[in-house]
Structures are given as structure tokens and as C-alpha cells.
Amino acid sequence: MKRNKINWRVPKGMELTELDKKVLYYQDRGHLVPSRELIKTPEQIEGIRRSGIVNTGVLDLVEREIHAGMSTLEIDKLVYEYTKDHGGIPATLGYDGFPKSTTILDGYYADASRMFTIGKTTPQKEKLVRVAKECLEIGMEAAKPFGFVGDIGHAIEKHAKKNGFSVVRDLCGHGVGIEFHEEPDVEHFGKKGTGMLLVPGMVFTIEPMINMGTWEVFIDEEDGWTVVTEDEQPSAQWEHTFVMTDNGLEILTH
Fold first, then answer.
1. CA-based Rg of the chain, rounded to a whole angstrom?
2. 153 phi and psi, to 5 degrees?
3. Are 14 and 42 in contact (CB under 8 A)?
4. Could you tell me the pLDDT band of residue 102, with boundaries at 50, 70 and 90?
5. Lowest-confidence segment of 1-10, 62-71, 140-149, 219-228 by average pLDDT
6. Count of alpha carbons within 13 Å of 167, Cβ hemisphere only?
7. CA distance 36 to 40
8. 176 in helix, strand or coil?
């Protein structure tokens, strides 16, 4: 069997915990496992949870205020001011050239997104938004302690395809909390039993981007960050931040 790199290291002289033994069992059998640094402490999880409360508040505010005729600049101002008023910092402001305002609070990151429909739209677009949310929920249900990241992607891709849609492959969920983007990459397609082992204490996002047409996308060269579908068909995305517990996922952002 091909062996993956050794990620889980126990400091010399330290007695093995039950968690160490369980993770080492999988690592010794060639599975990709997280590093111990990816397992958040209770204090870190509480910090990320507090950041998530601000993030959720931002989206609740947008949901209340968004309306036809409102500019995206006005939305960004709402987000920026709410975040600052609640002691946070907009994490995406200036990130990789992105010019607008995700939340940092007390050094902890949280990440989430929602879809909003303004006025009436077509039944197919309504379906796309609904299925994208269902993909997030199905991916969440597929994520189990000591399961694998690939279980999430497999469940999401199956549901999207069943509804006639595709899943973007060039963008994915990710670990989050201490940094904006951490390991693992949480792809929204794939095979069961593949990818990194999901261990209690890991914090990550699930954020499927579901397309009406092709899954292929490109980056707009004019600004360097806008993602566009190759066929310019509509796309929808929902995102939560989660912590893996002994009993499954706990949602930290809504």
C-alpha cells in the first residue's frame, strides 16, 4: 500500500491519548491524516464561535436590508460597518487583491455565505439556489468523525448531478479559524473514503458552488479575483463554518 506523508506526530516522551491512538491507526494504514496543529483547543473553538456570531449577524443584517435598486457598494458598507461596530475586522478586505469586506474577531476567523433572490426570477434559477443549499446540508450530513473529506464531496456531487447541475472543481471549502485558509481542502466532488481523515476538533468550511451549466470557471483578468463560469451560466453558493465533534458537525456560522 502506498504510504501518505506522516502528519500526526506525538512529541517524544508524551503519553499517547486515545485520540492519538485512533489517528495513528489510520495513519499507519496509509490514510492522509491532519497534523495535531489542525485540532483546535476548546479555547480556540470558542474564539472561532464568537467570530461566527458576528459573521452570522452580518448576513442577518444583509438579509433584512437588501432590496431592489441597492448597489453592491451599499451592501459592502453595511458589512464593513457592522463588522467594525462589533469589534471585528473584515478578513477579505485586501485579501489576494479582493477590494471588499468574512470576519476576524480577536484573531479568530469565521466564514459563511448565503444566496439572496431579489424580486422574481425563473423557476430554474430558484431551483439552482435551492439545490445549492441542499448540497451544503447533504455535505454536512455526510461529514462524520473519523470519516473522510471525500465523503463530503461524493454526497454533494451526487445530489447536484441528480438535479442536472455541475459542481465547480477549481474552488473548494477549507480549514479555517487561526488563519483564513488552512488545511484541508474540502472539495465538493470526489469519492467516498478518500481525502483527509476528519478528526474531532477540526474546523473547516463546506461551501459548494453549483453551476447551471459547465463546472469550468475562469478568473476575470481585469480585476484578478472575479470568478466567472466558462459558459456564463448562473452559479449559486452557500457556506457555513463547522467544527467536527465526537458526535458530528456543529455549525459555527449560519
1. 19
2. -60, -40
3. no
4. confident
5. 1-10
6. 31
7. 9
8. coil
